[in-house]
Amino acid sequence: MFNHNKIKIEEVNNISRLEDIKVEWRMLADNSSHLTPYVTPQYLLPWMRMLDKRYTICFILVWDDGELIGLAPLVEKCINKYGMKIKIISFPEQKPSPPCDILVGDNNENILSIIMDYLLKHKSWDSVRLSNMDENSKNIKPCTEKFVQNNLSVHRNSSSDIYYIDLKSNWDEHLAARSQKMRQNLRRGLRYCERLGDTCFSNYPGDISYKEAVDKVFHVVKHSWKNDEGSGQNWNKFLKELLDELENCGDLQLRFLNVNDEPIACILDMLYKNNMYALFNAYDVRYQAANAGQVMFGYSQEEAFDINGYRYVLGFREYLRQWTEKQQHYLQLRADKKTILSTLKIALYDFISDKRTEKVSDQIEIHKKKLKQQQKIT
After folding, report:
1. Which CATH architecture group holds 2-161+330-372?
2. What is the CA angle 365-286-256, rounded to 5?
3. Helix/strand/coil for 364
């Protein structure tokens, strides 16, 4: 930690320190211009624990008389290959990576400049990659200018598009605008469930205890393609920690589709800055013929229209296009050193990273198919 005109800058390299400042971190996130809950400690801490040992934490914090006024959620990744040490600084990434940004209070624009100066002058790296920033982020222009001023090669690349529903209308109008096939699938799916037995929706909080809600979530996950048992991934652990974090701060909202008291689909929602976010959803593949996942999403959207919010943010999966055509665009801001050695190292890193991503994607698809084959369609 050092002082910068009476402002303290702290670099954090361990999760325990980040856990100590959850209250201050959440307050900063709530007061920043960033709209998504993915930058809150309730989401990022479980995310960081899942990515443990893949990166070195190097969060940059800015304090003013005990008040946290800036936070850059950065990590460092080093690869030693062919006698070269390649160092990349980025947001915590693991596909599918959620949106992210540097957090700065609305009235502290100069703090971003302090964070960038620290990153440029006190950190050693070959490339900085700030992925999944909202294309309308106030931070993109000043960050780009800082990179250019320091004679770096700067690139802006599209990174993801996230589907959302405008909540200004109502559920009936929204549903009427969907395709006839979509509306038929919802009706047929619900009737299919009703033929199997007593069918109902339930919510937490409201209808069941937290323990019952968690048990229901993992009952669905166990019979879904998202179950990570035997996959070498840590998604189940991440999900449980995310549920605990959201429960502890009062942000947890869970919805279930039940047949004969057995949950067959679930969705995890979070209301943040008057927008609803679908953070996780799953369905029991034994009920695939009932369109259980689609029916669950329909119920959750109907509930979202009752909050008088702005948007219901669904995610980036292509199948979500059936619910809406509206998208929010996100980009990667990238800055590379221009030296010949750095250019060679960055090219090598990109090659290795692409190969690894391809391998992991193939493993996930194999695991997904294996799980689906193991389940019997009801």
Report:
1. 3-Layer(aba) Sandwich (3.40)
2. 100
3. helix
Closest CA to 333 of 159, 98, 105, 74: 159
- pTM above threshold 0.85: yes
Verify cis geometry, omega within 30 degrees of 0, for the bond prior to 96.
Answer: yes
How far apart, in whole angstroms, are the C-alpha atoms of residue 28 and residue 190?
43
SS3 state at 87: strand
CB-CB contact of 41 with 245 (8 Å): yes
Beta-sheet strand order (sheet of 275-283)? 56-57, 75-81, 84-90, 127-134, 327-336, 153-166, 311-315, 275-283, 262-272, 253-259, 199-204
Phi/psi at 130 (5° precision): -105, 90
Please name the helix (run of DSSP H) or strand (run of DSSP E) that holds residue 242, with its range, or none.
helix 235-248
H-helix segments, 32-160: 41-50, 109-122, 140-149
pLDDT digits (tens, 9 = 90+) for 297-337: 999 999 999 987 899 999 988 889 999 999 999 999 999 98
pLDDT digits (tens, 9 = 90+) for 140-179: 999 999 999 999 999 999 988 999 999 988 999 999 999 9
Minimal CA–CA distance to 146: which of 169, 172, 164, 128?
A: 128
Asked if 165 contacts 326 with a C-beta cutoff of 8 angstroms, the reply is: yes
Q: H or E segment at 271?
A: strand 262-272
The CATH T-level fold of domain 168-309 is: Aminopeptidase (3.40.630)
DSSP secondary structure string for all residues of 174-210:
HHHTS-HHHHHHHHHHHHHHHHHS-EEEEEETTTS-H
Where in the chain are all domains bearing CATH 3.40.630.30? Answer: 2-161+330-372, 168-309
Cβ atoms of 307 and 276 closer than 8 Å = yes
Q: Rounded CA gap, 264 and 286, in Å?
A: 8
